[in-house]
Amino acid sequence: MTGQYRITLLPGDGIGPEIMSVTVELLKVIGEKFNIQFDFTEAVIGGAAIDATGEPLPAKTLEICRNSDAVLLAAIGGYKWDNLPRHQRPETGLLGLRAGLGLFANLRPATIFPQLVDASTLKREVVEGVDVMVVRELTGGIYFGQPKGIFATETGQKRGVNTMGYTEAEIDRIAKVGFETAQKRSGKLCSVDKANVLDVSQLWRDRVTNMAQEYPDVELSHLYVDNAAMQLVRAPKQFDTIVTGNLFGDILSDISAMLTGSIGMLPSASLGADGPGLFEPVHGSAPDIAGQNKANPLAMVLSAAMMLRYELNQPQAANSIEKAVSQVLERGDRTGDIMSEGMNLLGCTAMGEALIEVIKIQ
Ligand code: NAD
Q1: How far apart are CA 53 and CA 61, in angstroms?
Q2: Domain spanning 105-261, CATH class
Q3: How far is the CA of 174 from the centre of ligand 1 (A)?
Q4: Is the pTM of this model over 0.85?
Q5: 221 CA distance to ligand 1 middle (Å)
Q6: 118 has pLDDT over 90
Q7: Does position 361 have pLDDT exceeding 80, yes or no?
Q8: Domain 1-101+275-362: what homologous superfamily?
Q9: pLDDT of residue 260
């Protein structure tokens, strides 16, 4: 046995249960192939939890997650719960889970599969071969800094305030994730800030530069965020790993994701200092196609591959899943969202079966 892991499964809402079921069947096959034992425990979150318990993140779900080695989440949300008060909304459950697990680093890869290069809105020669990873700080910066709010001023005008702040410790821990992620990839790290204008960014730049001494095998560069946004669209292949704060990362990860053109293909990982990480597709619960066996399970499956690589340290198993995704695309298998002329249209379960078929003969 090369490993034994407790995995919490949070299928959630909409297409969540469909893509989760495909992923679990695939992990069972991966477990056999690589001699890994997965002990799965399922729990409710989001709308499914509201229906079952009245709240989007029951204490029991959080406890199960905390007691596991990794958490796989499919998606939450749907029309049915859209009009509930904010604290009872499915999204509140997801935010509570991220906070409850102390997940401060969000990893979002944007990989262009050669077979899907035409799905991008950018020219083929610009995006072909793109493989970018954005490491975004998730629990600090302007979304959380104090003071914040809308205040009355002496002139009677209201003034909206948010505060961008990072402590040295906050910068160091996300920079470390950035360097280690770059080490697991091609060894290039670009730190993005706004140090020409913001003091908080100057501290960020100083700390990241300082940490580079501990990682002589990583080639570090710095870019201002406005330039980074331009460069991502102009020449994305120059990037490998990007590390940045919460606000800049929010924007840059969406830009890099859109280079690929297909939301059904994008996985993500959120990591904490210790304790389990959370692995989930970038897309939502797609209520418009839920229950119709039309969902693309590949973002969820690729999230499981990230779990194997970044949390469980099983790179061979992760490679096997990623290779399988490439192989099924290569032979022309497509779900509706990535369908093009002459390809084989498959449902969600058939795509899962196709993956298992290729993994067995890899
Ligand atoms: P969405 O990502 O669910 O859907 C956007 C479009 O992409 C839809 O047309 C959908 O059919 C399609 N799509 C998404 N994933 C797909 C897949 N795997 N296969 C095929 N097609 C796919 O975003 P939305 O419509 O803005 O939101 C729907 C619900 O999801 C909302 O309740 C929202 O709050 C929630 N949401 C949840 C998360 C999450 O769980 N992390 C993220 C975003 C949105």
Answers
A1: 11
A2: alpha beta
A3: 28
A4: yes
A5: 34
A6: no
A7: yes
A8: Isopropylmalate Dehydrogenase (3.40.718.10)
A9: 86
